[in-house]
Write a sequence for this structure.
């Protein structure tokens, strides 16, 4: 082949080679995200050791991509802007319905999760029935433990219509720790949040305990799950899952990651685990 023909062939092939290089580069980076269910400082503290663990286990660069709200986490997964996302049970169901996302792993505590109802100590609220006619805050609108199940249990356990039986429409704080702060300040008299966040805030003296008290813990439900976008290679998903399933509390580095995630171990997750959430989402009108 002449030098001229070789040169012309190289010119024709160069765009294809560039695309191939980009594809290889893309596979060398795993982007993860998660619903912003707490303040950004706390999220950064929880994700950094996890990202380092994933990077070490997967052998590729892992980047944490923050998002502004729950809906943005679902959208980023559907658009391929992130590969894996830490979602609540309800946001996973939304992602499954809207984008075909798949569950990967969940914490041991997520198979039997709970919400806790809290009240300002000056409100006169001592049990859920006392919340009628008082102001109330949920977390984010798409939160499983901060909205969906608290709303569901208010209706089924206490015959309280969240849209009619409080002092005005319920407020949506946007995050679990924000709900506690709103109750503590007296902006609202009561609220509901994720029990794991509540217990951590109590243990860490993150609020004035003389102003906020827990009044009721819900029955158990399934919640958080690491979720994969639908078109990821099965081998990549399996390797990602194994990075979590291999975490061992007997190893100090692994225990540090697990402690920050509020878990003793991770377990496999299946679509069937979230069937009840989909049913409750549709029964409450929150999932169309």
């Amino acid at each position: 082949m002449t030098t001229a023909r070789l040169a012309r062939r190289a010119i024709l092939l160069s765009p294809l080679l560039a695309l191939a290089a980009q594809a290889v580069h893309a596979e060398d980076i795993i982007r993860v995200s998660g619903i912003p269910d707490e303040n950004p400082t706390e999220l950064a503290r929880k994700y950094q050791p996890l990202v380092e663990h994933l990077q070490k286990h997967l052998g590729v660069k892992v980047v944490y991509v923050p998002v502004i709200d729950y809906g943005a986490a679902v959208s980023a997964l559907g658009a391929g802007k992130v590969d894996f996302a830490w979602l609540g049970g309800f946001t996973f169901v939304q992602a499954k319905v809207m984008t075909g996302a798949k569950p990967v792993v969940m914490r041991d505590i997520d198979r039997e999760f709970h919400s806790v109802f809290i009240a300002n100590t000056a409100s006169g609220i001592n049990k859920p029935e006392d919340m009628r006619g008082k102001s109330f805050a949920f977390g984010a609108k798409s939160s499983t433990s901060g909205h969906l199940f608290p709303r569901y249990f208010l209706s089924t356990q206490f015959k309280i219509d969240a849209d009619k039986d409080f002092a005005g429409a319920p407020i949506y704080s946007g995050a679990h720790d924000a709900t506690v702060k709103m109750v503590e300040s007296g902006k609202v008299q009561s609220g509901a949040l994720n029990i794991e966040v509540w217990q951590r805030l109590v243990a860490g003296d993150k609020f004035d305990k003389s102003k906020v008290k827990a009044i009721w813990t819900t029955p158990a439900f399934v919640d958080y799950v690491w979720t994969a976008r639908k078109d990821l290679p099965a081998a990549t998903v399996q390797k990602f899952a194994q990075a979590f399933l291999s975490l061992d509390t007997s190893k100090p580095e692994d225990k540090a990651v697990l402690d920050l995630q509020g878990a003793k171990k991770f377990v496999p997750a299946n679509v069937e685990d979230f069937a009840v959430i989909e049913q409750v989402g549709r029964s409450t009108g929150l999932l169309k």
The radius of gyration is 22 Å.
